[in-house]
Amino acid sequence: MTAYLLKRLAIALITLVLASMVVFAVLEIIPGDPARLMLGMNASADQVELLRNQMGLNAPLAARYLHWAGGLLSLDFGRSYTYSVPVIDLVRERIVVSLPLALIALALSTIIAIPVGLFSVGRHGRAGDTIAMGAAQLGVAVPNFWFALMLIYLFAVWLRLVPAGGFPGWSAGVWPALKSLVLPAIALALPQAAILARVTRSALIEVLNEDYIRTARAKGLPYRAVLWRHALRNAMIPVLTILGLQFAFLLAGTIIIENVFYLPGLGRLVFQAITQRDLIVVESVVMLLVAAVIAVNLLVDLSYAVVDPRLRSRQ
Amino acid sequence: MTLRFDIPEENFADILVKAFTNRSFLTGFVITALVAAVAIVSFFWTPFDVTRLIIADKTQAPSPAHWFGTDHFGRDIFSMIMVGARNSIAVALVAVGIGMGVGVPLGALAAARGGVVDEAVMRLNDLVFAFPALLSAIMITAIFGPGALNAIVAIGIFNIPVFARVARAGALAIWPREFILAARAAGKGKALITIEHVLPNIVTLLLVQGTIQFALGILAEAGLSYVGLGTQPPMPSWGRMLFDAQTRMGMAPWMAIFPGMAIVVTVLGLNLLGDGIADILDPKSRRQR
Questions:
Q1: What is the DSSP string of chain B?
Q2: Confidence at residue A312, expressed as pLDDT on a 0 to 100 scale
Q3: Does the CA dihedral B254-B260-B266-B270 come out positive or negative?
Q4: Closest partner residue to B126 among A15, A145, A238, by Cβ?
Q5: Per the database record, which ranges form the ABC transmembrane type-1 domain (chain B) (predicted)?
Q6: What is the pLDDT of residues B13-54, one digit of tens each?
Q7: Closest Cα of chain B to A206: distance in Å?
Q8: Does residue A143 sit at the B interface (CB-CB below 8 Å)?
Q9: Inter-residue contact A213 to A207 (CB < 8 Å)
Q10: Where are the domains of chain A?
Q11: Chain B residue whose CA is closest to A282
């Protein structure tokens, strides 16, 4: 078990280092001089050169990489070229939108998907199952940003229940802030729930074919008890895997949804930074998201051991 | 989805009968064929010319003349969806081609060689998987310039590890088989065995994954075009049409409804097709139904 965990940890760290090199390299080869961009087209070559020196852009490649990577480790992400504020401040400002949004969407998706999966298994092969899985099949096919547009039309334009976009900030009160996250969260959650419901169903069906389920039934346990106590727990591994992937996806994948709803989240920050060539913001936030994805995947690996005791004793 | 690696020994006619009695396959096949037909027809004929702007006809509601209404430039939405189908299919198909073309050899190599090579390929996979796909695709298209070509490359890159993984898993299940042992005894090298025996036996797996990635590619292309980084105007694309529709939702909801439905129907068709193929060729999953 310890060996397994150490191996996972080592892989995660290697991936992280390699990823940081890729991000740094990609942004290194793209055209555009940040110093020139900050000073504008009228600046003289000397001025640009001076700023390049100040920004450390003339240092050797390896030195710049180490400086940047070292900064990341101490949460010093550098200063944004366009906003002239520390990148960490921008991140802090935006993450309070993106993280709650991702968490609400994840919770919604789970709350919808697990019961639908259980329902489907309970009516395996009958009309209820067919309808539920048909709906899930449809849900998987819906692009979340189109679904978002439809929600805006229905609930914001037509019924006027919630705002069509924008974010008042948490300082405006928890309720108004939450209200502006409701539609984006639903738009993100439904397609995710469809995938999760399908995975839950097939994982449960697989487990219900196992011998120990027959044994549990044979010793007289009612179907419900078997389903909850034996089947669901054993079906959790694929479900957890997908949940982990979805959370990672939600953290970064809100980028389009944030654009639909004009939410000032991390995705929108990167999106704007890309178009403004604010490279330090792009590389820092992308790295942060990559680190989050790696961390979530590692946590999922660890959670297997919690869910499945057999993995704990295995050497 | 869980893929299994048992290859049923059936002849083609049996499989065909099974295919056309499988509800999922049949529905998916009909929808996909229909979308493909629409895309092909759009090369020769569309109800209206999608390049002509007729401002007098702008934002008209659906009518017998304009089945899906018109957009803010007076273009016929139905015709634009027809041309958009061509574009979506092309982008997604080439992206799948890139993923398969690079991923399958990598996966097959990892399975054949094992050891350090295998480890290296798998770590490379982990690396690509660590990057949020959509965000990275946006980064790539924004940096190297928006357009269909860069969108294809951006989507294609993220297909590579998917196919590498499936090919490796499939190949690993084939390698211990007796017929591989026989081939080795006959003196064939690993490369030849991979081409002659391993790959033909994992084709169906790759086909199933291919339809899934195809569907995901269509969603990704729509997403990229929606944020203005995919297919560029005046070439109609479903994602771009949705972007144009967003600010006009109140007065012309049809501008958003129909292109979105086109995406949903296409992706649904491909997913059903993939599920169907997996069902037909995989006895275990059929038993479970």
A1: -----------HHHHHHHHTT-HHHHHHHHHHHHHHHHHHHHHH--SS-TT---GGGTTPPP-SSSTT-B-TT--BHHHHHHHHHHHHHHHHHHHHHHHHHHHHHHHHHHHHH-HHHHHHHHHHHHHHHHS-HHHHHHHHHHHH-SSHHHHHHHHHHHHHHHHHHHHHHHHHHHTTSHHHHHHHHTT--HHHHIIIIIHHHHHHHHHHHHHHHHHHHHHHHHHHHHTTSSSPTTS--HHHHHHHHHTTTTT-THHHHHHHHHHHHHHHHHHHHHHHHHHHH-HHHHHH-
A2: 65
A3: negative
A4: A15
A5: 85-274
A6: 777 787 778 888 999 999 999 999 999 998 888 888 877 777
A7: 8
A8: yes
A9: yes
A10: 8-73, 94-312
A11: B139
pLDDT above 50 for A255: yes
pTM here?
0.86
Backbone angles phi, psi at A84, to 5 degrees: 55, 35
Q: Which residues of chain A have a CB within 8 Å of the CB of B138?
A: 255, 270-271, 274
Query: Above 80 in pLDDT, residue A35?
Result: no
CA-based nearest residue in chain B for residue A32: B143
Query: Which residues, 6 or more positions from B212, have their beta carbon under 8 angstroms from its beta carbon?
Result: B1, B270, B271, B274
User: Chain B contacts of A294, Cβ < 8 Å?
Assistant: 130
Class of domain A94-312: mainly alpha
* Residue of chain B whose Cα is closest to the Cα of A11: B123
Domains and CATH numbers, chain B: 67-283 (1.10.3720.10)
Tokens (6 digits) for B281 = 């060729």
* pLDDT, mean of residues A141-145: 91
The ipTM (two decimal places) reads 0.84
Residue with tokens 């079906």: A235
